[in-house]
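TICKET: design request
STATUS: open
ATTACHED STRUCTURE:
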């Protein structure tokens, strides 16, 4: 197989498995828009919400051009682009996936303590951790860590190793920006646990117990950015357990206690819990 045919061969194989692909040129970036689509003059793909070719036959709009259609992939002008491509890109969100892009050894070391183990793919300097499920993409969620899922592309570097885990609360929380602190209620001792009456997603009582224990561990083992870690952990717990009524004040007290052992004040805990509830509409 010739070197120039390799990206196209890989792209067709991925497309056949349901992964939307696009060619990447030198610099590992998408090909630029055609003249008609330059500066988004064409208006772009409607809403830019789904993978697939834009109305223009060119390879325009980066991730939104990604496709699984072998006819599009092998026809002009795509065919010419593959001859110039240096590698294959894909749209993780279009394949129902999320990629946590870890840029260096420090980011990898952090992920091994903060995120659930999942399929890993070596990169030039770090690793891609791939989870099953989609979420908003966001760059620089912390030093050396990017999230690539919906409305983003990633470079395909191989199938990776290890079983693929479901997208977790810990990963979801990374993409949420911390809002400004809210004014706490006077003399607040502990925030209300959650909203009663929602559908309970727990398969067994151990599911909630394990989640609270993992949240406590995430807080107590935070090596930096403790306040942000506390907020993100609270957000993750509430996003999974805040609507069904299973989360009790005793669980919240455990989380507050873990945060206070790391130097957080009661006010900081209350603010973080209130902000997380507000963010989720609880």
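STATUS: resolved
RESOLUTION: sequence designed for all positions
ATTACHED SEQUENCE:
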């Amino acid at each position: 197989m010739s070197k120039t045919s390799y990206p196209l061969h890989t792209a067709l194989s991925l497309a056949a498995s349901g992964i939307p692909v696009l060619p990447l040129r030198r610099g590992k970036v998408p090909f630029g828009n055609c003249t008609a689509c330059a500066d988004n003059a064409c208006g772009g793909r409607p809403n830019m919400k789904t993978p697939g070719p834009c109305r223009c036959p060119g390879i325009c709009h980066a991730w939104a051009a990604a496709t699984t259609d072998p006819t599009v992939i092998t026809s002009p002008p795509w065919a010419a682009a593959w001859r110039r491509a240096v590698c294959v890109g894909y749209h993780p969100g279009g394949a129902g996936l999320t990629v946590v892009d870890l840029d260096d050894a420090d980011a990898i070391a952090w992920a091994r303590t903060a995120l659930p183990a999942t399929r890993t793919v070596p990169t030039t300097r770090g690793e891609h951790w791939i989870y099953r499920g989609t979420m908003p993409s966001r760059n620089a969620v912390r030093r050396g860590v990017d999230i690539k899922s919906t409305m983003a592309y990633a470079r395909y570097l191989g199938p990776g190793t290890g079983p693929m885990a479901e997208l977790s609360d810990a990963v979801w929380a990374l993409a949420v920006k911390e809002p400004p602190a809210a004014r706490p209620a006077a003399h607040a001792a502990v925030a209300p646990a959650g909203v009663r009456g929602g559908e309970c997603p727990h398969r067994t009582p151990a599911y909630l117990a394990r989640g609270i224990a993992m949240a406590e561990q995430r807080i107590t083992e935070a090596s930096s950015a403790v306040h942000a870690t506390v907020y993100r952990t609270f957000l993750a717990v509430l996003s999974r357990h805040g609507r069904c009524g299973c989360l009790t004040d005793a669980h919240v007290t455990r989380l507050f206690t873990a945060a206070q052992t790391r130097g957080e004040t009661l006010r900081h805990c209350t603010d973080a819990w209130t902000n997380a509830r507000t963010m989720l509409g609880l």
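CLOSING REMARK: The first strand starts at residue 21 and ends at 25. The beta strands are 21-25, 29-30, 87-90, 97-102, 119-122, 127-132, 138-142, 145-148, 154-155, 165-166.
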